[in-house]
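Below is a filled-in request sheet from our internal design queue. Each sheet records the structural input a requester submitted and the sequence that came back. We keep these sheets so that new team members can see what a complete request looks like end to end.

REQUESTER: design group, bay 2
PRIORITY: normal
MODE: inverse folding
CHAIN LENGTH: 252
BACKBONE (tokenized):
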């Protein structure tokens, strides 16, 4: 498809499906050698030339996985932190175990993988990290407390890492997608959730949900030299959801 990442070595978490898999494919299409990291085994058809299994919330497992990926590929030039889980529950009903599960994967996991990759980038004097946050890290959504908090944390983690590692030549940015059709959001296809899905889709000014490949295209931009002066940004990929709301036709 292109050559914007030719010669680069990429590590993509959550690479087994959804946005992570789309990011892995796009990196490979653009010339990168890709290592996938996921909790499950490598799926058939994956473009990843190396694969490591790990729970991103477990530091020992992450350290071993990053070491294995580095042994296979060499020093990592590009990290895409796409591993994530969804959750439902308000602050008054959420169980502690669920809070810890969601923040463990979405926020702690993003930090841990970055922690074990970024020293390689600092040593090289270059590198790019793309974290997957969400529009729900920018706005509050009812009944999704742990997910909102975890993704808001990813946005601020991105900015803190940008401040820490920018002087060493390492760029750090995040993406804030709206509703993307992935296995994680497939629960909304259940007829019981039709009113919720319809309302959510309608909030997107383009009038539709997004596709993983559309998020991967934005990740490619942030990862590539096309974004050489983009640093500490939270780029929304949301079909206009955070741009505003449509009123009914008021012309009458």
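RETURNED SEQUENCE:
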């Amino acid at each position: 498809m292109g050559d914007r990442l030719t010669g680069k070595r990429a590590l993509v978490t959550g690479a087994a499906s959804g946005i992570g898999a789309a990011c892995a494919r796009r990196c490979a299409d653009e010339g990168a050698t890709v290592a996938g990291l996921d909790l499950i085994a490598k799926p058939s058809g994956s473009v990843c030339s190396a694969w490591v299994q790990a729970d991103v919330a477990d530091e020992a497992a992450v350290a071993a996985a990053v070491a294995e990926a580095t042994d296979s590929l060499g020093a990592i030039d590009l990290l895409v932190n796409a591993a994530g889980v969804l959750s439902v529950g308000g602050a008054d009903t959420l169980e502690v175990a669920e809070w810890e599960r969601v923040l463990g994967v979405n926020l702690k996991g993003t930090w841990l993988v970055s922690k074990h990759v970024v020293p390689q980038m600092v040593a090289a004097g270059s590198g790019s990290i793309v974290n997957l946050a969400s529009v729900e890290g920018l706005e509050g959504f009812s009944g999704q407390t742990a997910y909102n908090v975890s993704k808001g944390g990813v946005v601020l983690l991105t900015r803190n890492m940008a401040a820490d590692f920018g002087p060493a030549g390492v760029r750090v940015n995040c993406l804030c997608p709206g509703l993307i059709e992935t296995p994680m959001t497939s629960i909304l296809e259940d007829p019981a959730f039709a009113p919720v899905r319809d309302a959510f889709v309608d909030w997107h000014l383009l009038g539709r949900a997004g596709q993983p490949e559309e998020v991967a295209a934005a990740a490619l931009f942030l990862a590539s030299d096309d974004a050489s002066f983009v640093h500490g940004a939270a780029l929304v990929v949301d079909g206009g959801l955070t741009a505003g709301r449509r009123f009914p036709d008021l012309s009458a």
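SHEET NOTES:
- DSSP finds six helices and seven strands in the chain.
- The longest strand covers residues 170-177.
FILED BY: M.R.
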